[in-house]
Fold these 4 entries.
Entry 1:
Amino acid sequence: MPMRTATAKTTTFDNFIDGAWVPSASGDTFENRNPANTDDLVGDFQKSTAEDAAQAIDAARFAYERWRLVPAPRRAELLFRAAQLIADRKESLARDMTREMGKVLDETRGDVQEAIDMTFFMAGEGRRQYGQTVPSELRDKFAMSIRQPVGVSAIITPWNFPMAIPSWKIVPALVCGNTVVFKPATQTPLSALNFVRILEEAGIPRGVVNLVTGGGGEVGSALLVSDTVRVVSFTGSTDVGRTVAERAGPSFKKVHLEMGGKNVVMIMDDADLDLAVEGCLWGGFGTTGQRCTAASRVVVHESVYKTFLEEFVARARALRVGDGLDPKTEMGPSVSEGQLQTVIKYVDIGLKEGAKLACGGHALTTGPYARGFFHEPTIFADVAPSMRIAQEEIFGPVVSVIPCRSFEEAVAIGNGVQYGLSASIYTRDMNRAFSAMRDMDTGIFYVNAPTIGAEVHLPFGGTKATGNGHREAGTAALDVFSEWKSVYVDFSGRLQRAQIDTADL
């Protein structure tokens, strides 16, 4: 069983190592509390150590020797079963997720749906891991390429999409024939545990998937430095991602990094302003702004700037903030006290930089907000592109509105940050739309839609300080979790030397 009842009021959840639910060698646990109501204790989870990580790595290494030989279509059958189990339990999984990380139920249902979609999609790749067959330059010789698994995969995921993002990584790893050690964020271990429990129930063999909860300092570091781990897939901040790359580099393991964003919505003078306001509300305040794809910058043409700003501010002020389990709530809390303090810090930075506080700007601390980590939806106006609030990722409900005089200036402002994840333009001019699509240095681009809302069958990722060139989702994810092998079969019965011997005409 994945849990043990410690007291009448507290449930203790275990790690999953080598097919068994086991406590940490440390004997210690940490609390997981509802960010909308800290009196609500979700459960106690294992405060794991490097020893636990080593046990999980060993289990994954041993299981790999059998799992890699299971035909990919057979691996996929188990994943199809898992996808159906997730679908059957969508509502309970969403409620658990809202309770532990705060975002509203519609959003957690979407998070679970993304895990369903990804698992079904990637299971289909069990029969579609296509290689190439090509003509050889020599007679009586056959040439082809095939995908092969990499080995033990370390999966390190954030708290903002605690079931979707693990599915982006774990499911392609499994369908390619790798085994997994999964370290979720400490803020959302229950959603991770629910996902792993479903994989276990679907029939994934012992040791193929292992879950170790706890801090990155102990567990994460052990995964990064292990020579046995051959691929690390990490989603989180750029600063931590840089550390991941540095720690993993000496053992030459593959490293996939999905990191920060400072995404822009560009609103041109011919835009549908009602549509643009809707998009900016959802892009800026969905998930309380706690998305790497959040629309935290809005660049608006000066001819429509005042009209847009007035409506955007009015709509933001009207957003209902509260417990995500309440169906009337439109924006939930920050995930933790630390994240709330980061938001408060950046609001102060914006004020000191001279930006105009158009609405919000305060933590909510009284009445129904007293036991949670709530903050008002906040908009800064007349922001200069060089201000810190327009350059640095805040990961909270804070949006900077920046005026511009032309399409060209909007693109320059949009590209003028260290990140390159997502960008958007609102315009009725398709010439502008296609120019922006070409010129924005981002991995994702939207026309007449906000910067969020990726679909599982296209690559997801970014440029510059957002990523290191890999992509997840779509068939691009297979490239993270597989290696190409070129195979030559010479049936001539004699030595043939490529590029030296030439075939007779």
Note: Residues 264-447 form a domain with the Aldehyde Dehydrogenase; Chain A, domain 2 fold (CATH 3.40.309.10).
Entry 2:
Amino acid sequence: MKIFPFFVFFFSLLVLNGCGDKFQPNKEIKTDCTLGSEPVRKVLFVGIDGVRTDALLAANTPFIDSLLPHSYYNWNTDRGEYTVSVPGWSTILHGVWPAKHGLFDNTFKTNQYSTYKDIFSLAKQIKPTLSVANLSNWDDFLRITENENYAQRFDSDMDLKNDAIRIINSCTPDIMVLHFDNPDAFGHDSGFSPTNQPYLDAITLSDTYLAEIMGVVKQREAAFNEQWLVVISTDHGGEGTGHGNQYDLPQTRYVWSILHRPDLATSTELAIVNSVDLLPTMLNWLNIPVQSSWNLDGVALF
């Protein structure tokens, strides 16, 4: 009888400590599909997890190929050190390197998010009525941002794609972030390689889903004179079936970025792009001036 209280206490400590970095549905999931307030310019960020540049170029991606003639692009984007997902996506969505956002692995214990805010929080400082949404097929992705009107996790990329189309048609957020996870899963399963067909097929499927989503975007641009900046990128590449501690490998650290503008008549390859440049570029599209107090590491690409 004397052992039982101690066991309960010890077990409780384990549970509390173990949950410290766990996804919290009651906190992260939000269902308010608030109508977008920007009548013309919108931003869609599409993150496709774990896609090496050479694999993207080797995969059958007819839709992404069709975007390039009207896009800025770069095949050698520096995503920085600490080549796992939480630091990678945090660098993109907070616009600062790990030295500032504080994340060097896939936990959140050392995050400096209170000092270096995410794209939604920064945008709403200037335009409080913006509608923003985050949809992901990976629980922890939703923990990288806050202040969303709508945030949802999904069991599959297909479910995510279907809900993204629904949200665009129903409330049309001003900033929408999507995270597709399939390519990373196949990379871990059978290899991050431009010669691994299952990995390439997963990239092709992401391209197919993106085409369906963009079909709705193009309909809105034609019907309502909207202008959508569509930014597509990844958080890391990989080698073998992993990508951790591979910042010295170019196939893992140096990735790709595509920025599709509806008003761009030509294809433009950018000489230098860093992952931290994507956030200020997206804010600039929405006519949101970057504040010096934000202390961002990136610069707007246009």
Note: Residues 1-20 have pLDDT under 50 and may be disordered.
Entry 3:
Amino acid sequence: MITRRFALKSLAVMAVLAAFPMSQAMAAEGGKPKVALVMKSLANEFFQTMEEGAKAHQKQHAAEYGLIANGIKDETDTTAQIKIIQQMIVEKVDAIVLAPADSKALVPVVKEAVDKGVLVVNIDNKLDEAALKEKGLVVPFVGPDNRKGARLVGDYLAKQLKAGDKVGILEGVSTTFNAQQRTAGFQDAMAAAKVKVVGVQSGQWEMEKGNLVASAMLRENPDLKALLCGNDNMALGAVAAVKTAGKAGQVKVVGYDNINAIKPLLKDGKVLATADQYAAKQAVFGIETALNAIKAKKSQKDLPAAVETKVDLVTK
């Protein structure tokens, strides 16, 4: 009976692991700290770049720590991301560096991790402050000011527009803090320029969804002058929508992230501007924050509230 129960348990664990879209893992050996990097969709070039940056850092510091890098299949699969974190707790990692798919939904499992003695550092998308406070948690956010970055992009676009012009905003997943902050930054810039925002709709960070939303906005507003996109994936979709609508050169598009795929479009003017928040370094900043805390034997409550990183305007 014991053998059968053990076998069934082993099969169950294997099934859970098989469900995760895990990247190649580098496990810690010889007592080194083990850090788990848990990202959003690895179909998004931004997170592929983040993963590459983290792996390159670990390779350079192989004697100091081991790394396990994980990601989910799409931007909204919070359930899969929660399961990955729970598995990392089972794996007894020393720290989790998390880019949460949802600012509120991930807080309970973060509490699970912290209660088990795992240090958690938040990158990319900030966890909800009220939800953290309710759980009595302090989780440092290591990353850029998204509102500031979007304001840089919006201000640059505004110079190409005039008061009264109409624009649309393609927001990321609306329950995420970074999506909300980027929309706020775009709104700040448009309000300052007296440009009219005719709509804010979620493109869920994805190119296909961004294309659908942009196409609808263009149909509903034939005099639309610009589309402000919360990330470059949606900007790629918006550019395609503008072309299909026969409005290339008439409707300006801006994005956010400065992924490689956007650079040719910046060069030829199909995308006016984007923001670089240094994807390759974001995970590294989070990993270094976690490693410094481990080295100093700090607990979760002793970690800093925030570490702000750079965000820069990128144009042609």
Note: Confidence is low (pLDDT under 50) at residues 1-28.
Entry 4:
Amino acid sequence: MKLIATVSICLLLGINIFGQSDAVYFTRINEPNEKALSLLVPKGWIIGGGAIRILDPNSAGANNMVDCKFDLSVKNDPKGSVMIRWLPEILCIDQSNAWGNPEGAVFNNTLVRRKRDPVAFMAQVAIPYAHPNASMVNITAKKQLPGLVSLYSSTVDPSVKMVTNMVYYAAMIEFNYKEDNRLYSERMVTVIEDYGINGGGLWKNRQTMFIRTPQGEMVKWEPLLLVIQNSGIWNLKWITAEVNGQRQRSGLIAATQKELQEMDNAINESRRKTSYEINKDMFLTLTGQNEYRNPHTGNVERDTDKWKYRWVNAGGEIIYSDKEAYDPNHDPLLNVSGFKKSVPRK
């Protein structure tokens, strides 16, 4: 587990957010199941799923009961016509090491699943899981992601890597499909963590996520999806409970406050670097970012420069606008207060 909320009032009124609308309003919403993290979501959008606890060892093996899983989506309507979604990370054992057990069985406390490269995993496992009713699936592009591989490889403890021969593979695919009589375009990315020849056939999917829109509308929706992707903030209280819970389930002693703070810092830094690498490839038409000074905290925040003006409040909500004279605090459609302009640092 390595570790993001709603569309503007203007959207709710049917105004084109990429035209002359006054504002695009993102509000921060907690992941609903355990409040493990919060996301910026366009106002009116829906957060679905969230934290998952595997409680039955017969479903995916006891090894997958140790840590919390996430199946989390942010979507513009109940069907997810426009959506960003993160899929669960599952520890598996290659079928060749499972002594004849079929795929989907549990062997040695781990789910049996044939080891796949990233593209095959997405095509054969992730897409059927995320879109069981999809038809006419057509993969139109494949891309290896060496930057993401290097990032994951650099985080492995040298002693662990030496013992397990841990290696990583990462890729992105673009594809079209039909679901519920509607055509969609989607981009999906995943990392495969392979424990190597000394790892007993163990492997795991990491950072499996996708963005989708109605076919032909990907460029239109990328700016909003990018904001969501970059917005995750983990709850330190939840991290503390989760880390200590994992240690108890693994028979280890509880983490100290110093360890927890170091973990929190490491998680946030890892999320920042991973998001940057994914953004370079997932959001193909978006390269512009800038650094902004938050007037409430004084912190410097990296964000999209798709819009000319950025307003924030003390709760971390954001409003974007392209109009120089616009002030969200005086917008009768929004009925908000406490927003201050966040200006570029340079």
Note: Residues 1-21 have pLDDT under 50 and may be disordered.
